[in-house]
Amino acid sequence: MTLDIDLFRPEKGGDPEKIRENQRKRFKDPDVVDRVVEADVRWRKLRFQGDELNRFRNLCSKTIAEKMKKKEPVGDDDTLPEDIINNPAENCTNDIIKALNVKQLKKLSTLITEHIKSSAEKRDNVELERNQHLREIGNLLHQSVVIHNDEAFNKVERTFGDIEAKKKYSHVDLIHMIDGVEADKGAIVAGGRGYFLKGAAVFLEQALINRALMLLHDKGYSPLYTPFFMRKDVMQEVAQLSQFDEELYKVIGKGSEKADEQVVDEKYLIATSEQPIAAYHRDEWIKPEDLPFRYAGLSTCFRQEVGSHGRDTRGIFRVHQFEKIEQFVVTSPHDNQSWEMFDEMISNAEQFQQELGIPYRIVNIVSGELNNAASKKLDLEAWFPGSGAFRELVSCSNCLDYQARRLRVRYGQTKKMNQEAEYVHMLNATMCATTRAVCAILENYQVEDGVLVPDILKPMMPTVYKEKIPFVKPAPIEQVETAKQKKQKQGHQKKGKKGQQEGTMPSAESVAMEVANVNINS
């Protein structure tokens, strides 16, 4: 995932200062732009050097053939000038080569071949260095993005429903009250944040998946059930470097199905179906008339959640494994088509939440909180009336050609003469992360004796849960409070008993008061 390298080349119409300013607006290091420019200058010099060396070697072969055809003497001396031996790319000329005898030309051709190999190795190393710096640089920001480094300054674009309602229980309590999760056994089996989804919660999750897929299918999105893991080299083309440390799970296995081969294969579990779908058209030329491609990705997602220690440790809102329906769209890079699609995709997510009857707000994410790929991101944050907070359910991003460039997903049938290749635009948006959607439904639809089922999901629920999911367990928070009250009561009882025991031996003050009272009455 990178910007177009020509944006760093003034002679190609690029403006490095514009990219430096973009980095500053992202609150990232602008000096990395200079490192890209410097490495690119070295890379282009080495590429030119390689081209010159190839040209000189071809000229050597052509000149040898001409001299042999003319039956010129081969020559006895193969000595070459020192400057040509040290740097044939800069010191050779056509005239010098044509003046050499056949023996010298053969020696020069061998020498040039060695220099070509050495130059190619240097060029590859510099290209690797340049591209590593290039991947640190974020996409160009859309003009509507709020420039700030604090998410508290995210701009609220619009709201839906009652976003001030208050209710009694949070999703942490409610999922237990409907007996929808077994967290203790999940932690034993899978470790921290592990869980078994149970009973009514399973049906609720499946209903959400079915409705989200159906809604997208009706809008022309093609469902894709994606692989759950990806090859390392492909994942490197769709994920940021930080994700490998903080988010992705590595899977090591045999690289061959043959029992006697010990090849090791390194793969990564996907964090979202966006990753495999982004690579779906890898190395392809896309015909303009075939676009846009609309996909509805369904997958289990796996995330390490490094850096979220202590956040949402209870309940199923933030877990290592969950199901998700993802919108992914490939568009033309022309005529503002990707930004029109951006509006369509967030509208799809809003329609789904409106069908569910979940209050929400749409927020424009500040520049400092965007990942490198996103030019702009809108989040849909649902109102959780039991928690008294907005929580993110949906992220919608336009990545322009940032992802497509590294995946080599090009626009058009083939590269035209003297024209730079164009790349498609790629966009992604959550439709439904199921565990989070379940949490939102639990809080918003809670009543005294259970959780009502949203009307849109009723046809997909079993008869026993079609109208309401009943509470079958007490609220954990009330059990904690009861235990605390019981402990306090026991403490008071112990103090009272101790006071009674001490009361059998009156204090000096109480005796004095009794004597005083007797004297007054008399």
UniProtKB/TrEMBL annotation:
The record marks T430 as: Important for serine binding. GO terms for biological process: seryl-tRNA aminoacylation. L-serine binds at T272, R303, E326, N428. ATP binds at R303, Q304, E305, V319, H320, Q321, F322, E392, L393, V394, S395. Signal peptide: none annotated. It holds the Pfam family Seryl_tRNA_N. Residues 215-454 form the Aminoacyl-transfer RNA synthetases class-II family profile domain. The keyword Ligase applies. Residues 485-498 have a biased composition (Basic residues). It catalyses: tRNA(Sec) + L-serine + ATP = L-seryl-tRNA(Sec) + AMP + diphosphate + H(+); tRNA(Ser) + L-serine + ATP = L-seryl-tRNA(Ser) + AMP + diphosphate + H(+). InterPro entries: aa-tRNA-synt_IIb, aa-tRNA-synth_II, aa-tRNA-synth_II/BPL/LPL, Ser-tRNA-ligase_type_1, Ser-tRNA-synth_1_N, SerRS_1_N_sf, SerRS_core, tRNA-bd_arm. Belongs to the class-II aminoacyl-tRNA synthetase family. Type-1 seryl-tRNA synthetase subfamily. This is serine--tRNA ligase. It comes from Paralvinella palmiformis. The lineage of its organism: Eukaryota, Metazoa, Spiralia, Lophotrochozoa, Annelida.
